[in-house]
Amino acid sequence: MSEASYATIATFGRDLTREAVSRQGLHEFIVPRVRQHGGVVSGTG
Fold first, then answer.
1. Rounded distance, CA 31 to CA 33, Å?
2. Rounded distance, CA 5 to CA 27, Å?
3. Confidence check: pLDDT of 1 > 80
4. DSSP H helical segments within the chain, as ranges?
5. How many helices (DSSP H) and strands (DSSP E) are in the chain?
6. DSSP letters for 1-12
């Protein structure tokens, strides 16, 4: 029997006129919080 697998998909809107601020928030807040969850293999942005 194979192990179960799953995926979580999230979509975030951003203001393209504030791209630098959006990227900073992504890398300083969202990515670290997602990585705290066990079993995270990869992500794309």
1. 5
2. 26
3. no
4. 19-25, 31-35
5. 2, 0
6. -PPP--------
Taking the model in full, what pTM does it have? 0.55
Q: CB within 8 A of 45, min separation 6: which ones?
A: 26, 31
Name the token pair of 41: 């293999």
Question: What share of the chain has pLDDT > 90, as a percent?
Answer: 7
Flag whether pLDDT at 31 surpasses 70: yes
Q: What is the mean pLDDT of residues 13-18?
A: 85
Q: Which residue has the tokens 């990869």?
A: 42
Residue 23, token pair as written in the block: 């990227």
